[in-house]
Specification:
Elements: E1 2-13, E2 16-27, E3 31-35, H1 42-50, E4 57-62, E5 68-71, H2 85-89, H3 97-106, H4 122-134, E6 140-144, H5 152-169, E7 172-176, H6 180-186, E8 189-193, E9 197-201, H7 203-207, H8 210-216, H9 220-230
Parallel strand pairs: 3-7, 3-8, 5-6, 6-7
Antiparallel strand pairs: 1-2, 1-4, 8-9
Helix pairs in contact: 3-4, 6-9
């Protein structure tokens, strides 16, 4: 079942067209990753799907009553703001203390509830933001480069947590990432974006696509091998190859 469909999306800021005729879909239970160079429109696309930006042309469709959890790149906090993690999580009306505690525990941050947000490290903040996203009981998680600034072990651990949550919740994951080695190991499908969809498909198909190699070269092969060497759990791919929109080959 498709949770999100984007059809012929075009976005422009002034005279600058950021996205041109972009189409994609995300189905329940799959991990889809968007890669592309800086300025390729990745974050803009995510914000349109989230509903923070209105499309100039094209249509974005959500499944009925779709619950979305969102993890931004970072959250800028005024260092003088005296707010704890628990208080931050309960800013949204109706959130219970028990739900906050459960969400923090699930992301291995149970001891951070009374910590001031300004005192959190980058990795701790990302786990808190993920806990906040889980409070929505999401059917889809939108992640905008959620491990930016983390070291490689920290990034790998975060993405393993995302995979575990996908299995537990049977939710979809749509993420923007610059870490190509992680993307190729953790994703069911990859969309290569550079203002338009350059190529898409399984990680193996995209990695070998000329459009992908033109953008990133072949230098990612070593990183991919390194990550896979450390990647010690199984994926459930039973659901991920049944798409009708020709995921089996790269396409313009």
């Amino acid at each position: 079942m498709s949770l999100v469909k984007v059809n012929n999306l075009t976005m422009a800021f002034g005279e600058h067209t950021v996205l041109q005729n972009v189409s994609l879909s995300v189905d329940q239970g799959e991990i889809v990753t968007i890669v592309g160079p800086n300025g390729s429109g990745k974050s803009t696309l995510l914000r349109v799907i989230l509903g923070a930006l209105a499309p100039h042309k094209g249509v974005v469709e959500h499944a009925a009553k779709l619950r979305i959890g969102y993890v931004p790149q970072k959250l800028s906090i005024d260092p003088t703001l005296p707010i704890t993690t628990n208080r931050f999580l309960r800013l949204e009306h109706g959130v219970r203390r028990a739900d906050c505690a459960a969400a923090l525990a699930r992301v291995d941050a149970a001891d951070l509830g009374t910590t001031a947000l300004r005192d959190l490290s980058g990795g701790q903040m990302q786990r808190v933001l993920l806990a906040r996203a889980l409070l929505a009981k999401p059917q889809i998680l939108l992640l905008d480069e959620p491990t930016q600034g983390l070291d490689q072990p920290g990034s790998a651990n975060f993405y393993r947590l995302i995979e575990d949550l996908r299995r537990e919740l049977n939710c979809a994951v749509l993420m923007v990432s610059h870490e190509l080695h992680v993307v190729m190991s953790a994703s069911d499908r990859v969309i290569c974006l550079n203002g338009h969809v350059c190529c898409h498909g399984t990680p193996e198909v995209v990695r070998n696509a000329p459009e992908y190699r033109a953008l990133f070269g072949s230098a990612t092969q070593g990183a991919l091998a390194l990550y896979r060497h450390e990647h010690d759990h199984d994926h459930d791919h039973n659901h991920s190859h049944e798409h009708t929109h020709d995921d089996s080959k790269a396409a313009h």
